Amino acid sequence: MNLNKNFHYVNRKLKIAITIISKPYRNPNILAEFIAGQLKNRVSFRKAMKKAIELTEQADTKGIQVQISGCIDGKEISHVEWIREGRVPLQTIQAKIDYCSYMVRTTHGVLGIKIWIFIEKEDERTKQ
Q1: At CB < 8 A and 24+ separation, what contacts does 10-18 make?
Q2: Alpha-carbon distances, residue 103 vs 6, 7, 9, 10, 122 (angstroms)
Q3: Which helix (DSSP H) or strand (DSSP E) does residue 52 occupy?
Q4: Which residues is 65 bridged to in the sheet?
Q5: Which residues are bridge partners to 66 per DSSP?
Q6: Mean pLDDT for the chain?
Q7: Is 126 helix (H, G, I), strand (E, B) or coil?
Q8: C-alpha–C-alpha distance, residues 89 and 93, integer Å
Q9: What angle do CA 70, 47, 96 make, to 5 degrees?
Q10: 8-43 pLDDT tens trace
């Protein structure tokens, strides 16, 4: 596979660094791609959200919030559906929250996926 031509790096050297993620389901980008793949395969959006939450709980997080918006399940009018499990203190500045916004094109239209993952507070990190 010729990556130089794909990235338009013909006359320059291209360095690719591959890193191993120890807990992949703690990463909101990976979770968003997982949900997007499920929605493209016409899985129920609630089932996909609950499965993502279940995977995140196994990865040692304090809380997760998943939001899907758009014409969900082919409905004419777009609306927003969300599920929260555990604590997600969005107003607390000290909280370490990972966030991801992801767009997915389905047969019904474009859907937006937002994921917030609460890992830990700053106080708890300094105590350890």
Answers
A1: none
A2: 23, 22, 27, 31, 30
A3: helix 45-57
A4: 84, 116
A5: 83, 115
A6: 88
A7: helix
A8: 9
A9: 75
A10: 666 777 778 899 988 899 999 999 999 999 999 999
